[in-house]
Fold:
Amino acid sequence: MRRLILVLFVTPLVALGDITGKVVSVTDGDTIKVLDSTSTQYKVRLTGIDAPERDQPYGDASREHLASIVAGKQVFVASDHSDRYGRVLGKVWVQPSDCASCGKTLEANHVQLLAGMAWWYRYYASEQSPEDRGRYESSEDEARKRKRGLWADPDPINPYRWRKGKR
Structure:
């Protein structure tokens, strides 16, 4: 009698859902690492925005701006999915530095847009709520109009185009 042996290869997956933890690293203007209370580290990609790459003009400025908002702080990441690279995709909420009595009411993703440190990631707009689509689009428009951050450049290069040019 022949026996069938079934071998399962199990890849550990991040349990998707909201995360609360401390930001231990800021990779670039739209990616951070968060350590939760069980010492599990998550790589988190801020949804709805696309920040300049580190080797791109404004890349360092974008990373430094995000770090000024979240580095070393407790954050809440609202997430329900990950990307093909295993990063948790989410909105990152932090306590505003100027309000000791406030909770985590400042959305870092949105702040990056307002400061002109990222583009609204239109390609994934359908994954956003209608409210977020409207806020993100108008915030990018406002930053452009006021020439904040990367919009001070007369011809800023979208990170998507930058990445395509590198391949």
